[in-house]
Amino acid sequence: MRTVEEVKATLQVAKLDAAELQPAVHCLSFRDGVSSGDYCLMELDETLCKCIESGQRLIIRGDKEEHAVLCNNDKTYDLKIADTSNMLLFLPDCSTPDQLPSNPSTGCLIHSEIYGFANSYWELRRTRPKLKKLKKLLMENQYEGPSEEKQKGSDNRKYTMEDLMDSVQASEQEILQQLQAMHAYKIEGCWRILEFDYEMKLLNHVTQLVDSESWSFSKVPLKDCLQELEALEPREMIEHCLNCYGKRYTDEAEEVFYDLNEDEVCKATALMLLQNAVKFNLSEFQELWQQSVPEGMSTRLDQLKGAALVDRNSRPQVISPLKVEDLSENTQERFNTLFNIRTKWTEEDISPYIQDLCGEKQTIGALLTKYARSSMQNGVKVFNSRRPF
Amino acid sequence: MTERVHDSLKYPSANRRDDGVVAEWLLMELQGEIESRHHIGLAGNLMGDLHYTREGVPILIIGHHILYGKVSHLERPFAVLVKHSTSKETSESRLQAEIPGDGNSVTNYLVTALIKKKIIFKTRPKPIITNVPKKL
């Protein structure tokens, strides 16, 4: 062990005046058996630092072929190794000047060990959750109704929240939000999405009942719906359908009502009409669509943002189904696909298909500047691929 | 493969202090590399003396070199992680059981400490000249 005398002698040789220095000295030595692989360093942001301090768990997710991400409860981060040419030493019991004892009476030695060292660390960058896999997993075994379920038996793949969190690269909150957006439902502990035709069947039951009872779309009573429809479908599925297409509220008499969302109902109806079509004559479609929605609801093309695409340049004008959730999550691949579908896009047309690619503080304009080239066509600004075609 | 980073609150470890606060370590950043004399390895060896001036400037004496540094607050703090292989340690098998699915490939990292401050030595080390030749 190094002594006070040795430290003093070194100071003398170094021509440093002990009077200029604080009396406490750290003698640093490497711990026995120290090696660079003992510890990893991970750079945090303020949020993650607080998570750790409050005792939350962070999880690293990814299959072997995927790029690892780190999630806390509600955010996802890309994980990357950063190398540095500097040597980073970890000192568990070393004090900064402000932490040292202030009484300058006697010199004291603090023997502190270097616990480990590194010349790289993990860098984190906030990223969009990768949720496409979620739909892929749930599509394997969609829910088609109670009788079909019985026929299928129990050997079909089902996923609990834990299963999903193990394979989807997103945080728990992000997964839950997406499940809600996909109208998924938890059946016997496992998350399922409804087969589209079955979901439409449920919605039709509800809208037909609203029509025959002459209820207002903004005041659909849960109790009566369940009573009237339980002979046709399970009560929980009727309620789930109401939750997906309406906003639940309670009136003064504590009765539960739903305010049906016109846009959502119209969009679902359009998707049903378009589901097997490649193209649809636009004016014929609009007429059929309006006839298909419940009486009193009105259809508007902007309800189909991110679900269908109108081609105004063809004669006659046509509409085709194009769902944003079917496109790649990778930004470059997404743009490649979009420019394959159409070589020139207006900002209005392309926006619904790239909106979800925007990172934190990133705008659609910035994305277009990076991934597309703009030009004027008949006085309208259009965007095409940066790659030669 | 699923790897989990958790901290020592739920899975007690000596590194969380009695008051429940995650330990805080200090980082020292040196330019270049440290090698031991005669290449005997660093483990167990003295590195040097760390002094602070009255003004709080860190001074590190390593061998025949003096380095002047700076204490700085990290804008982005670090977590110091230790990898735990679940298959080897029986104490961790409890954790493995909590995770359904492919529990075999679960790796845990324990947050041993947080680092919020570092001492960085950016300037070139100054040599200590011990044998000053006398005037001729």
Automatic annotation (TrEMBL), chain A:
InterPro entries given in the database record? Dcc1
Keywords from UniProt, A to Z, are: DNA replication
Gene Ontology cellular-component annotations: chromatin; chromosome, centromeric region; Ctf18 RFC-like complex
One GO BP on record is: maintenance of mitotic sister chromatid cohesion
| Keyword hit for Phosphoprotein | no
Q: Which domain of life is it from?
A: Eukaryota
- Indicate whether Ligase appears among the record's keywords: no
Q: Give the protein family.
A: Belongs to the DCC1 family.
Q: What is this protein called?
A: Sister chromatid cohesion protein DCC1
UniProtKB/TrEMBL annotation, chain B:
- Please provide the record's keywords in A-Z order: Cell cycle, DNA replication, DNA-binding, Nucleus
- What is this protein called in UniProt? CTF8, chromosome transmission fidelity factor 8 homolog (S. cerevisiae)
Q: What is the organism of origin for this protein?
A: Callorhinchus milii
Its family? Belongs to the CTF8 family.
State whether keyword DNA-binding applies: yes
Lineage, highest ranks first? Eukaryota, Metazoa, Chordata, Craniata, Vertebrata
A GO CC term attached to the entry? Ctf18 RFC-like complex
One Pfam family from the UniProt entry? Ctf8
Mainly resides where? Answer: nucleus
